[in-house]
Write a structure and sequence with these properties.
heterodimer, A: alpha+beta, Beta-Lactamase, 5-stranded antiparallel β-sheet, two-stranded antiparallel sheet, globular, B: mainly alpha, Leucine-rich Repeat Variant, 37 helices, Adaptor protein complex sigma subunit (chain A), Adaptin N terminal region-domain-containing protein (chain B)
């Protein structure tokens, strides 16, 4: 099964972290350690992370239970899957590709900022591909339609609850980018307050 | 009030990069207010913000209850937030989980969206209790009209079964029905789930094979095929018929499929599924290896990596097939990519045989020595790095893998394991291997000193033929002052000095002029070393002096007197500096040695060379030898017993001496616990004490034996004495009273949490174990009647020959006599450089002239070999320090 899915950028800032099984160290330690291992790999290396200190980090000693770290890098983001022996190594590489393509469909030319500001959407999308560490669906069309149906349901529910709101809270590409004047003002105010 | 949304929080975070902690502290304070709000929208917003902060490492466990509140919202968009927060923050010990049972039950019967979201949430947060309460509801969802829900339900059922296996019989049949689902996605999800379940208990799912086989031969979905093939890889080792059935379709897939991932999975299943061992497996194996070899040559590093993975699994059965590609594999040890290196290393160590061990080890060593990549990347390399922006990140120069200490450690450990595998089975030339170990000591620069030390000591104990060479190498190491000076550095392997000193001390007869090594052993820098190493150094210095003085005494020349005096003086002055060492062990050893040398100094001072007239010096056995008698003081302390490696099971195999009667009283019981009849006494307590004694002896050093022996003799002989009949009479009332007290005590202890009963307390014996007095054996007067000699002659005739090649490895180690035939081909000692041929005979006579220092019983008496029943083997010869062991 898949034990965790982590996305972080090229500076090591986490953009999404999902752990399907209990972890033995803090999530931050794991993310930063994997980041430091991945970021020092020379270009053209393979997509399987192997390092002597990894076993200890992931907390598995058994040869049978050995966990593998499969990762892929896209622009400024690293997508990392930690999987065990019942997943196919090359299959996982393809699954990361499916995940990214699904993101690309949902956000139209996905970039890091989309993941930053739509952190919850990314989680909902991931939930259509992997559930509880088991692969749920690999067909891009199926994933896409499920994502859209769920998003539409959220949007509808939001609209029913806030008849006056303009778009906010809904989903779909860049929908929350369209801000209410109120939200815009809040942003300004908090900016001041925080300084 | 203007409440921040998640977007505002993120924006604020980005704007306040400099003072993030303060900004977040403020944000968390606001969130703490907002989650208490009555407005569910506001509450959900706060929970969502918390979930984001949780990813950045901030605690949100305090808000668990609010998460449940949001989950229970009837509005779908809020519920989604609640479930997301739950999956991210709930763990197995989150206590509010039990509050969610009814909520989940309700959501599972709601509209499809709610069902989907709750099934997803359940798959993360399910606990055994939830699984028990909800398993029926989840299983019902397996027949939902929407494929999307069925898919999710399949996975949720699996998760529930993991937590609550009792539901398996009922759920599994329903789950298996999903293999026939009309929706391909549901079937694929079912296969995924089955793959997890089969991996845990393959034998339980063999009945599924026909169904799965049909799916495999009809499906064209590669995702599902990969999983199916994997599944068969788990199943087929448990069902030989499957192997036969699977071979044709898998062979066909291998040769036809264009999908490399599927091809690889087929090859992998062939290997792990045992299809290659089967009849006609050889051609399949060849096909697999050729396919994998093309992966090895592929420019795609990923294929290379998985090829290594699979090859390492095929090596144990088809070594010769893989061996064709040895050069290709060796060159990958030097790959830029650490992952590839690690895998290649794995594969190499699986490939090792007697024939290729040397070349592989040499190759690995050369990688350790030579930095293979210059610290500054070449121009072309840095260019490609800049172009491929995906991996360049500006975190500084990329370290060459050989520079990484963790990788070096892995290499060195693998190398040591490779060579020592199966008690050095693959090592043919031990001279070579010792040199390798010494090289490693210098080039490893990682913490492996301990392991090198262990192997050195182990080899010297097991392979007699190589001892001379070992001493040669070790003296080199001991004389290397730079190595000593650098011993403080990290990864210096200074522990090897322990072995070096010990080996030189034990084989001091091999050293031509042992006294020349003494200054190196006692130089001031030695105090930099670890205390246990210093201890061995001191001991070695004493041993070396013993060897030297023995040699001197045999070729005595009065001109040497001054030399000896000087050496002894230096020794004393150097040793004195260690008597104030902070470690007690070092102090003690130094103080002991100083006292010994003080005596020798006194003897030397009183020695006058007037006995010059006696001409036949050297071999003289007369009472007035021509040389200072104290020269023979030290050597016998160390050279009486031969060192052997001892079998691990030796201790357990010691036959119980016939004369040992554990049921007899050692001492009479005191008055208050009088017994009706001494012969019925269950001597459990005494039994325990005796066996402890035995164990202690097994580990004891030679010098300590005398005392232990005498106490054992005390035990043995006391049993032959009639037990004093003090207070052996007991009236019936007393006996009843005593029995009552005993039962009371047992009852009391049963409830005492601090009392661990180590044997059934309901022992039927009327004799109370606890009432047996503990006798302090040390206080017993020593018994005069000693039946057996304590130390029969153990010295082997040193006129033995040098073992000719090849080296003999004492693999099994020494066993007690009578258990197995004594190891007949025990490699004999190498004759000493400084010959000691007469030492066996001369020692007793000479020593007996030093009544003040010689403990008579410890002198081996030649020609009185009486069988010794109890030997003192040491446990595990490989790691522990070899100890002196009794041999015949």
């Amino acid at each position: 099964m898949i034990h965790s899915v982590i996305i972080f950028n090229t500076s090591g800032v986490p953009r999404l972290s999902k752990f399907y099984t209990p972890i033995h160290q803090s999530a931050q330690t794991i993310v930063s350690k994997i980041y430091s291992l991945i970021s020092t790999r020379p270009p053209g290396s393979c997509n399987f992370l192997e390092a002597p200190e990894l076993d200890e980090l992931l907390g598995r000693k058994d040869a049978d239970e050995k966990l593998r770290v499969v990762y892929r890098s896209y622009a400024t983001l690293h997508f990392v899957f930690v999987v065990d022996l019942s997943e196919s190594e090359l299959g996982m590489l393809d699954l990361i590709q499916v995940f990214v393509e699904a993101l690309d469909r949902a956000f139209e030319n996905v970039c890091e900022l989309d993941l930053v500001f739509h952190f919850d959407e990314v989680h909902h999308l991931l939930a259509e591909i992997i559930q509880g560490g088991v692969v749920l669906e690999t067909n891009l069309e199926e994933i896409d339609s499920a994502v859209h149906q769920a998003a539409a349901a959220r949007k509808q529910s939001f609209a029913a609850a806030n008849p006056l709101a303009l778009g906010a809270g809904g989903v779909g590409p860049r929908s929350t980018g369209l801000q209410t004047p109120l939200g815009w003002l809040t942003g300004k105010l908090t900016g001041v307050g925080a300084r | 009030m203007w409440e921040r949304t998640l977007q505002d929080l993120i924006r604020g975070l980005r704007a306040n990069k400099k003072d993030e902690a303060k900004f977040i502290a403020q944000a968390v304070n606001e969130i703490r207010q907002e989650v208490k709000s009555k407005d569910m929208g506001l509450k959900a917003g706060a929970v969502l913000k918390l979930t984001y902060l949780e990813m950045l490492g901030y605690d949100m466990s305090w808000a668990s209850f609010h998460v449940v509140e949001v989950m229970s919202s009837p509005k779908y968009h809020l519920k989604a937030v609640g479930y997301l927060a739950a999956t991210q923050s709930f763990g197995p010990d989150t206590d509010v989980l039990m509050l969610t049972t009814n909520l989940l039950k309700k959501d599972l019967t709601s509209n499809p969206h709610d069902i989907a979201i709750s099934l997803n949430g359940l798959s993360h947060t399910i606990s055994p209790d939830l699984a028990r309460d909800l398993s029926h509801d989840i299983v019902t969802m397996l027949n939902h009209s929407k494929p999307h829900i069925r898919k999710r339900a399949v996975i949720a059922v699996y998760k529930a079964l993991v937590k609550y296996p009792e539901a398996t019989p009922f759920a599994l049949t329903r789950l298996k029905e999903r293999l026939e689902d009309q929706d391909a996605g549901v079937v694929a999800a079912t296969i995924n789930v089955l793959c997890e379940m089969v991996r845990r208990e393959p034998a339980d799912y063999l009945s599924l094979a026909p169904q799965l086989f049909r799916l495999m031969t009809t499906s064209s979905n590669n995702w599902m095929l990969i999983k199916l093939i994997k599944l068969f890889g788990f199943l087929s080792p448990h069902e030989p018929r499957l192997v036969k059935k699977l071979q044709p379709p898998i062979t066909q897939l291998i040769s036809t499929t264009p999908a490399i991932s599927l091809l690889y999975e087929c090859v992998h299943t062939c290997i792990v599924g045992g299809m290659l061992q089967h009849a006609s497996g050889d051609s399949l194996a060849e096909l697999c290896v050729t396919k994998l070899a093309t992966f090895l040559q592929d420019p795609d590093q990923n294929l290379k990596y998985i090829a290594f993975l699979a090859l390492a699994k095929i090596v144990p059965t088809h070594r010769n097939l893989v061996a064709q590609y040895q050069d290709m594999i060796l060159s990958s040890i030097n790959d830029q990519d650490l992952s590839i290196r690690m895998r290649a290393l794995d594969l190499l160590s699986a490939m090792v045989t007697r024939d290729n061990l040397q070349s592989i080890v040499q190759q690995l060593l050369s990688y350790l020595v030579r930095p293979d990549v210059s610290p500054f990347p070449a121009a072309a390399q840095s260019l490609t790095q800049n172009i491929s922006s995906s991996t360049s990140n500006g975190t500084g120069p990329i370290l060459a893998p050989t520079q990484l200490s963790s990788y070096r450690l892995a290499v060195v450990q693998r190398l040591l394991a490779m060579c020592s595998h199966d008690t050095y089975d693959n090592v043919v030339d031990f001279q070579w291997y010792l040199s390798v170990l010494l090289d490693l000591t210098y080039v490893a620069t990682v913490k492996v000193g301990d392991q090198i030390r262990g192997q050195l000591v182990d080899i010297v104990a097991r392979v007699r033929g190589v001892n001379r060479w070992a001493v040669e190498l070790m003296t080199r190491l001991l004389r290397d002052d730079t190595f000593l000076a650098n011993s403080q550095e990290e990864g210096s392997c200074a522990e090897v000095l322990w072995a070096a000193a010990w080996i030189c001390g034990e084989n001091s007869r091999e050293i031509a002029e042992p006294q020349k090594l003494l200054p190196h052993l006692l130089q001031p820098n030695v105090s930099l070393l670890a205390p246990e190493t210093i201890g061995v150094y001191l001991q070695t210095a004493v041993k070396l002096f013993g060897a030297w003085s023995m040699e001197l005494s045999q070729n005595w020349d009065n001109g040497r007197l001054q030399d000896v005096r000087e050496v002894v003086d230096t020794l004393i002055s150097r040793l004195k500096t260690f008597t104030s060492h902070f470690e007690i062990d070092v102090q003690e050893r130094a103080a002991n040695a100083v006292q010994l040398f003080n005596f020798i100094r006194a003897d030397l001072a009183s020695f006058s060379p007037e006995q010059d007239m006696i001409t036949d010096h050297g071999t003289s056995l007369s009472q007035t030898p021509t040389y200072p008698k104290s020269l023979l003081l030290i050597n016998p302390l160390f050279s009486v017993y031969e060192l052997n490696s001892v079998n691990v099971s030796a201790q357990d195999s010691i036959p119980v001496p016939d004369s040992l009667d554990l049921d007899t009283w050692i001492a009479s019981p005191p008055r208050e616990f009088t017994l009706p009849d001494a012969s019925t006494v269950d001597g459990t307590e005494g039994d325990e004490r005796l066996s402890t004694k035995k164990k202690v002896k097994g580990k004891g050093k030679g010098k300590g034996k005398g005392k232990e022996k005498s106490s054992k003799d005390a035990i043995l002989s006391s049993q032959t004495d009639p037990i004093p009949s003090v207070g052996l009479s007991e009236t019936e009332e007393e006996r009843i009273e005593r029995e009552k007290r005993r039962l009371e005590r047992i009852e009391f202890r049963r409830h005492d949490p601090y009392y661990i009963a180590d044997r059934p307390s309901s022992a039927p014996s009327a004799n109370d174990i606890d009432s047996i007095p503990v006798v302090r054996l040390d206080d017993l007067p020593p018994l005069s009647r000693v039946e057996e000699p304590q130390y029969p002659s153990l010295l082997r005739d040193s006129a033995s020959v040098i073992p000719s090649e090849p080296f003999v490895v004492d693999k099994s180690g020494e066993m007690p006599e009578g258990v197995v035939p004594p190891p007949d081909a025990k490699p004999p000692l190498i004759p000493a450089v400084a010959t000691r041929s007469s030492s066996t005979d001369t020692m007793p006579q000479v020593l007996s002239s030093f009544p003040a220092y010689v403990v008579d019983e410890e002198i081996p008496r030649a020609g009185t070999p009486e069988p010794i029943k109890v030997k003192r083997p040491k446990k595990g010869a490989s790691s522990a320090r070899p100890k002196r062991t009794v041999t015949e």
